[in-house]
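Predict the 3D structure for this chain.
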Amino acid sequence: MDILRLQYFLAVMEHRNFARAAEFLNVSQPAVTHAVNKLEKELMVRLFDRGRFGAVPTEFAETLEHRARLIMAEMELAKSDLASMRGAKKGRLSVGIGTGFASRLAPKVISEFVRRWPDISIHCEGGNTAALKPMLLNGAIDLMLVAPPLSMQLDEEIATVELFDDVDKLTVRAGHPLLEKSDLQVTDLVDYTWLVSRNVGLWRRFRQIFQDAGVAPPETLVDMSSATLGLNTLIHSDAIALLGTEMSHAYIERGELAILPVEEFVAHRKSYFCYRKRSPMKLSAKNFLSLVKKYSKELYSS
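Done. Predicted structure below.
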């Protein structure tokens, strides 16, 4: 299978238009059309429905896209490996940084990595596990640092290196009225606004905790997937959220956030260094992992 044809195919998938794909690739539109036609003939399937709405991918194209991105990612890995064998020190490493790692671990690792291997270009993508997982699987990133929610399973094609436990605890702003209450109970939390990311399944567990306490769950919810927005909302309101202690650590140290001592909501999540099982780690990724292990031990050995 011709790699160039796959590259042209992926460009059309991304832009949904042959002309825009050609412009992106800096080639002529007939060249892109010819390459995709050849690919369709080779695979004996129709990849796009052409029309006035552009190039609409067929189910065959959607299936091919995943494999094609992996092939392109493997080609980049092969180039990097061969460069290492030639003694070259330059390269590129793409890393997915889970939200909870952005406070302490990732900055320390990246800082030392850049100092020790200055000719390796690092590209960082931030986000939660749900956002980063497909990027790892399709080859957009080489590895990721994540602490997935208890309700989420990692794909069987993902290999993991266990790092440390991240502990979820109820978090509020410093000076929150509930911090002054002695013997805090679940029933005391009902009348406050809750910041919840429903897509990770936490709210089902929350509802059960309130029901077990004999009260109806809070009615005021804000569905929020942005960690930055959530943290700033907590700081400037009386809202409540369940946060990993790694994510909230810096804010607590600065006196902006505090922990509510309600044990019913506490949960332990494993954090992982992840990579694709079928893609041997390149040297730069192994070096990155060594630093991740070093600082995980330094920060969380207790």
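The mean pLDDT is 87.
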